[in-house]
From TrEMBL:
Residues 312-364 form the HAMP domain. It holds the Pfam family SpoIIE. The keyword Repeat does not apply. Keywords: Hydrolase, Membrane, Transmembrane, Transmembrane helix. This is SpoIIE family protein phosphatase. The chain crosses the membrane at residues 16-36, 291-311.
Length: 617
């Protein structure tokens, strides 16, 4: 069970913030961050693909210039003596010297390897061939050197060298094609990406053949030593380019500080490398990130504010509803709450207003019932009676605010020797039964002192009550008893009520005062019967009750029963009438425990001192 001092939210607004707004904020923030990371990764991939495409294009251009000499020189492979005699080999070598970028072609023969050496001068000069020996095989497997500065030509050159193989698979000479390195890479270094980023051409050992200083207006081509002398990214790139023909490498940092891409040439053991700063590559994503996070936080803020406003309306309505309900529980009624929506909360408020209105009417009715209960209690005897050998006590306990049971006892005004006792039970209980009970009491009181026998008096009451109940079908049972000191007897009329019990302790005899008679208000002309019993000097106890006493049930559905009531009467006959009634009601309460009363309980106990009563006569 949560204690009041725990951190668990107690109000609906606190729960809304903790369990709704905070999770929504975290979810949207996480989704935005994940989207940003995905966009960053996509942009890096796109840059890698673009960089590799540019490198592949540049490598292809260099490969094509390197491939042309190889392709032309391969025509020497397998020339026949007849073809050589016709000067085809001289034409091929001459054609080779005319290629763009070729600054010289040298053919060397071992000493004595041929009658006359073949001499070829620089393009544009006189050249002559003396040939008396022919070769049959040329594999044209070029070895390409690193760029070196050629003093003779005043520029950096690279050499493509291949051996000349005769038909006996002997090396008989070699051909060296000297190319202008700057012309070879001219298209590459003029490409926009070369001047935008750091670009390199490196060999497999990591030597830089040429690089650029990331300046579009000032591009310098020079050999600058080892590629991996500094920087983690360059070292990682060098390690990868030795094993792979192409790829991209990311430097440290998130996002990476630098990114490199490389592509290896097919015609030379060289690799093109480009290195770009991460902030340049990710400039769009950095700009996007600023806009994205700014708009995301603004959007999330506006969304959460809107949710807060909407939820606040709901929580405020519920809070006001709760406060009004608390006041209602204290019996404080307010004006109906204003309904501002047509959702479930609005429906709840409408139902609450309806409930409040009904409760207010119920409270008013309850107040009226309380007044009716007070009025009804005033109709019952206020004090016990004790005089002339008679002690009389009575009680009524209603299962509702008002009930249909009643009792009455009083001495006759016109015949003081007579003492009247009445116990009635109107059908049902509640306000309707209480009203009918008041009517019955008034009729009894109005007729009881009129001349006539007891059965005549009760018959008159029955006719008058019948006029009021004929249309509704209501009725009432009644037990009327008169202690007549002059006649030294008790007389009674039983109108559908359970018999009274008379117990004489000296003899131990318990009898029921029975007799014929139906309930009042059922038949207009019914003739009731007066029953009589002579008084004796012995003391006796008389008990009259309603069926709510012996029909009271416990949790098991068992009724209290008349036998328990008779045992209580025998065992408690020595008590005063008031004490006897308390003993009986306590026994009924102990029997039913928590089970509420299903019917009204009414008891009247009479103690008759026969000797004293007779002496008074």
């Amino acid at each position: 069970m949560l204690k009041p001092d725990t951190l668990y939210p107690r109000s609906l607004q606190q729960k809304t913030v903790l369990f709704l707004l905070v999770p929504v904020f975290l979810f949207l923030t996480l989704a935005g961050f994940s989207g940003y990371r995905a966009m960053r990764a996509l942009l890096l991939d796109q840059w890698g693909e673009t960089a590799l495409a540019n490198l592949e294009k540049a490598a292809h251009q260099i490969d094509m210039q390197l491939h042309r000499p190889r392709q032309i020189l391969s025509l020497l492979d397998g020339l026949s003596e007849k073809e050589s005699a016709s000067g085809i080999d001289e034409f091929i070598v001459e054609r080779l010297s005319r290629l763009d970028g070729v600054v010289n072609v040298l053919v060397e023969w071992p000493e004595g390897g041929r009658n006359n050496s073949i001499r070829f001068m620089h393009r544009g000069t006189n050249r002559s061939w003396n040939k008396s020996w022919r070769f049959q095989n040329n594999k044209s497997m070029f070895d390409i050197s690193s760029p070196v500065y050629d003093v003779k030509h005043g520029s950096e050159t690279v050499s493509m060298v291949t051996d000349l193989i005769d038909k006996k698979n002997r090396t008989v000479g070699k051909v060296e094609v000297i190319l202008d390195f700057k012309s070879l890479i001219a298209q590459t270094v003029q490409a926009p990406w070369w001047s935008i980023y750091q670009a390199f051409i490196v060999d497999q050992k990591g030597n830089i053949l040429v690089d650029t200083n990331n300046n579009m207006d000032n591009t310098s081509i020079q050999q600058t030593g080892s590629f991996a002398t500094s920087g983690i990214l360059k070292q990682k790139t060098l390690n990868m380019l030795r094993d792979q023909t192409s790829g991209t490498v990311f430097g440290p940092g998130r996002p990476p500080e630098e990114v490199s891409g490389f592509y290896r040439l097919k015609e030379a053991p060289w690799t093109l490398v480009v290195i770009a700063p991460g902030d340049k590559i990710l400039q769009p994503i950095i700009h996007f990130r600023k806009i994205y996070f700014l708009s995301s936080f603004l959007g999330i803020g506006v969304l959460l504010l809107f949710m807060r406003m909407m939820i606040s309306r709901t929580t405020n309505s519920i809070k006001k509803l709760s406060q009004t309900a608390g006041d209602l529980a204290q019996g404080i009624f307010h004006e109906p709450l204003t309904v501002n929506s047509y959702d479930e909360v609005g429906e709840l408020i409408r139902n609450f207003n309806t409930m409040t209105s009904q409760l207010q009417r119920g409270v008013q009715l309850q107040e009226a019932m309380a007044i009716a209960s007070e009025v009804q209690l005033t109709l019952l005897p206020h004090e016990d009676y004790s005089e002339n050998g008679l002690e009389v006590s009575g009680l009524s306990r209603y299962c509702d605010e008002t009930g249909g049971d009643y009792y009455d006892f009083f001495r006759s005004c016109t015949h003081p020797e007579k003492f009247h006792i009445v116990v009635g039970d109107v059908v049902g209980h509640g306000i309707g039964a209480a009203l009918l009970m008041a009517t019955l009491r008034a009729l009894v009181r109005a007729n009881i002192d009129q001349p006539g026998t007891p059965e005549a008096l009760i018959a008159k009451v029955n006719r008058q009550l019948f006029l009021d109940t004929a249309s509704s079908g209501n009725f009432a049972s009644l037990f009327y008893l008169c202690v007549d000191a002059d006649a030294c007897a008790i007389q009674w009329v039983r109108a559908g009520h359970d018999p009274a019990m008379l117990y004489t302790p000296e003899t131990g005899k318990l009898i029921e005062l029975d007799g014929k008679g139906i309930v009042l208000g059922l038949s207009e002309d019914f003739q009731y019967q007066t029953n009589s019993l002579a008084l004796t000097p012995e003391n006796s106890v008389l008990l009259i009750g309603s069926d709510g006493v012996w029909e009271a049930e416990n949790a098991q559905g068992e009724q209290f029963g008349k036998e328990r009531l008779k045992d209580l009467l025998r065992n408690s006959a020595h008590l005063s009438p008031r004490s006897l009634l308390n003993t009986i009601t306590e026994a009924v309460d102990d029997f039913r425990k928590e089970v509420p009363l299903a019917d009204d309980i009414t008891l009247v106990a009479v103690s008759i001192d026969g000797k004293k009563l007779l002496c008074e006569v």
